[in-house]
Design goal:
3-stranded antiparallel sheet; 8 strands; alpha+beta; single chain; 237 residues; disordered N terminus; 5-stranded antiparallel sheet
Length: 237
């Protein structure tokens, strides 16, 4: 009899708790978006250095000599040696097909010299003009990208505009539904959906046919599209 009474009390307590739950307040949930096109403010110059020799030591010395020559040119253009970084070093056997078989024919050693600097039409023209004076053709690429400072400023502005877009949409929906927006309940920020940093590269080989001052070249970085999206929830009554 005591066991039966205990079960009844617990059951009654459970039913009572369920009936005391507070009903959820009505809300309006909207997604706000914003986007803008930004011109890259930074430039990356990559010079490819390589050499093919019968032994690795000679190939390594050859690209070392080339690197010192390029460093001298870059210093003449106003860059510091600390501005130049070495990337993508590689060394491998040079294999060629001969007499229906693969034959080792020396070693190929290569690396890239990378310099990053603020976008400047005149500096780029001077670089191309100077490279055109070099006896051996220079293998290089020029890329454009957005700096962290400009990226952060752009994203902050877009986030504010996305929230404003969400508020406008929520207001329109509330008016159409005959309700009134009250307090903010939540803001949900999604992942970055902007395009990759590097958007446009231009590859060229400097040679004697270029204008000596490089003024015939025009460098125009293609704009990058940035987007932001945010979901905002308001209580309504």
């Amino acid at each position: 009899m005591k066991k039966l009474l205990l079960v009844c009390v617990l059951a009654a307590g459970t039913v009572f708790g369920q009936t005391e739950q507070t009903p959820s307040k009505p809300t309006v949930t909207v997604n706000g978006t914003s986007k803008v096109f930004v011109t890259p403010d930074m430039t990356e110059l990559n010079i490819h250095v390589s050499a093919l020799k019968m032994n690795m030591a000679d190939a390594t010395k050859a690209i070392g000599d080339q690197t010192q020559n390029y460093l001298k040119i870059l210093k003449e253009l106003g860059f510091k040696e600390t501005d130049v970084k070495t990337t993508n070093f590689s060394a491998s056997k040079n294999r060629i097909y001969k007499n229906n078989g693969v034959v080792d024919s020396g070693y190929v050693v290569s690396q890239n010299l990378t310099v990053k600097f603020g976008y400047s039409q005149s500096i780029l023209q001077k670089i191309v003009a100077r490279f055109s004076e070099v006896k051996d053709p220079v293998d290089f690429t020029i890329g454009f990208y957005v700096s962290d400072e400009l990226r952060g400023k752009t994203e902050a502005d877009l986030q504010g505009k996305a929230v404003g877009d969400a508020r406008k949409k929520a207001s329109n929906l509330s008016t159409a539904a005959g309700v009134k927006m009250t307090t903010l309940k939540a803001i949900v920020y999604g992942a970055d959906v902007s395009n990759p940093v590097y958007y446009k590269d231009m590859r060229m080989f400097a040679n004697g046919e270029m204008a000596s001052d490089g003024a015939n070249l025009s460098f125009a970085p293609q704009e990058i599209e940035f987007q932001e999206s945010v979901t905002v929830v308001w209580f309504v009554e």
